[in-house]
Amino acid sequence: MNAKLDSGVTTRPVTRQTFDDVLVPTYAPAAMVPVRASGLDLWDQSGKHYLDFTAGIAVTSLGHGHPLLVDALTRQINTLWHLGNGYTNEPVLRLALALTEATFADRAFFCNSGAEANEAALKLARKYAHTKFGPHKSRIVSCLASFHGRTLFTVSVGGQPKYTEGFEPLPQEINHIPYNDIACARAAITDDVAAVIVEPIQGEGGVVPGDPAFLKALRERCDETGALLIFDEVQSGVGRTGALYAYMECGVTPDILTSAKALGNGYPIGAMLTTATIAEHFNVGSHGTTYGGNPLAATVALNVLDTINTPSFLARVKQASAQIFANLTKLAADYPQLFGKVRGSGLLIGLPVAETFAGRAKDFTKAAESLGLMLLIAGPGVIRLAPALIVSDAQIAEADRIMRGAADAVLAAA
């Protein structure tokens, strides 16, 4: 037995300080340590209650510990955990059928995260372009302020230099254009472009909705040049906007779509969806993953999809969204010195801070946390709300009450 371990390793006391002592410092988590949650309710080590309007960054869209998912996962745990990729399994086949039946896609590839889904999409796009047109067609066009993952390839495709500093040399043949800029898009997408990747709603970049005219211009230009259009719906997908996927309401169908986050409600899974014609360029051995599409993840995702993809569920998302937008619009009107104009879609919502508090969105989320409300930021100047899609009217009202208290606290400390 390792001398560094003791017999109480699974129950030894740990605190927030333990993070600083033993984990690589890639994050700066909150001082409180969550230990238990149900729905949108969460409790920390001291027993303090919080209302969770983060959903683990738009992940737990059916809330923490959803009984249907707990039951499905428990049954699968007692049936079959994992197989090497020399075998398939029933849950992943059912999930692939459900996703292809619900979307434009004919084929699905499963992995473990949004970054891996985007990595697969970009690799497939280049392989398709090289095979069909030749190696000269390799350039990838993305948008400034975008976010597509943390692998070296996807972080280079993302349009935020702060995430690539220190990791050079970066992959080549990647260019970035301003989001929602049609003229720049048309100029950038030329015959040497293999793929254009875009978030229909920029999440990490500030919760900025894509202009339908911009997204349509990307589609048109890709059609003209033979480039593939990739929609990154890692954050906007699986009901978050009030549609199963955001592309369904913007009048544009991509060639490849990536999904993750809410698809597994906290169980790691990612998916790349595409057409049969494009998919055939990923032949046997050209790409893979050890854990992707395992029976446990696929079982959870299938039940998530089955629950969310109903007219009544998606209609409720839009109803809840309207209530929160109304509350935030009133909040911004009552505190103009603190907030700008609310934006977003469905239950992916951004509230910019005013110029006088530029770069200080974190001050507000910390104040809200101290009062029992968990919120996110989307860059230093935007407060982000991404509650579970099952959020109730009472919880929406409670979040509004706490946000007003937090606004008073921030102004008092200014």
From TrEMBL:
Compartments (UniProt record) = Cytoplasm
Report the pathway entry: Amine and polyamine biosynthesis; ectoine biosynthesis; L-ectoine from L-aspartate 4-semialdehyde: step 1/3; Amino-acid biosynthesis; L-arginine biosynthesis; N(2)-acetyl-L-ornithine from L-glutamate: step 4/4
Where is it found, in Gene Ontology cellular component terms?
A: cytoplasm
The UniProt entry, under SUPFAM superfamilies, shows: PLP-dependent transferases
Gene3D superfamilies cross-referenced by the UniProt entry: Aspartate Aminotransferase, domain 1, Type I PLP-dependent aspartate aminotransferase-like (Major domain)
Give its E.C. classification number.
Answer: 2.6.1.11
Q: Which reaction does it catalyse?
A: N(2)-acetyl-L-ornithine + 2-oxoglutarate = N-acetyl-L-glutamate 5-semialdehyde + L-glutamate
What is one GO biological process annotated to this record? L-arginine biosynthetic process
Q: Sorted alphabetically, which InterPro entries does this protein's record hold?
A: Ac/SucOrn_transaminase_bac (IPR017652), AcOrn/SuccOrn_fam (IPR004636), Aminotrans_3 (IPR005814), Aminotrans_3_PPA_site (IPR049704), Class-III_PLP-dep_AT (IPR050103), PyrdxlP-dep_Trfase (IPR015424), PyrdxlP-dep_Trfase_major (IPR015421), PyrdxlP-dep_Trfase_small (IPR015422)
Cytoplasm is among the record's keywords: yes
Listed A to Z, the keywords are:
Amino-acid biosynthesis, Aminotransferase, Arginine biosynthesis, Cytoplasm, Pyridoxal phosphate, Transferase
The chain residues annotated with the modification N6-(pyridoxal phosphate)lysine are K261
Q: How is the co-factor bound, per the entry?
A: Binds 1 pyridoxal phosphate per subunit.
Q: Which class of enzymes does this protein belong to?
A: transferase
Q: Where does N(2)-acetyl-L-ornithine bind?
A: R150, T289
Q: Which GO terms describe its molecular function?
A: diaminobutyrate-2-oxoglutarate transaminase activity; identical protein binding; N2-acetyl-L-ornithine:2-oxoglutarate 5-aminotransferase activity; pyridoxal phosphate binding
PROSITE patterns (alphabetical)? AA_TRANSFER_CLASS_3
Which Pfam family, an example, fits this chain? Aminotran_3
Question: Which sites bind pyridoxal 5'-phosphate?
Answer: G114, A115, F147, D232, E233, V234, Q235, T290
Q: Which family does it belong to?
A: Belongs to the class-III pyridoxal-phosphate-dependent aminotransferase family. ArgD subfamily.
**NCBIfam families the record matches:** arg_catab_astC, argD, PRK01278.1, PRK05093.1
Q: What else is known?
A: May also have succinyldiaminopimelate aminotransferase activity, thus carrying out the corresponding step in lysine biosynthesis.
What is its quaternary makeup?
A: Homodimer.
What's the name of the protein? Acetylornithine aminotransferase
What is the protein's species of origin?
A: Massilia psychrophila
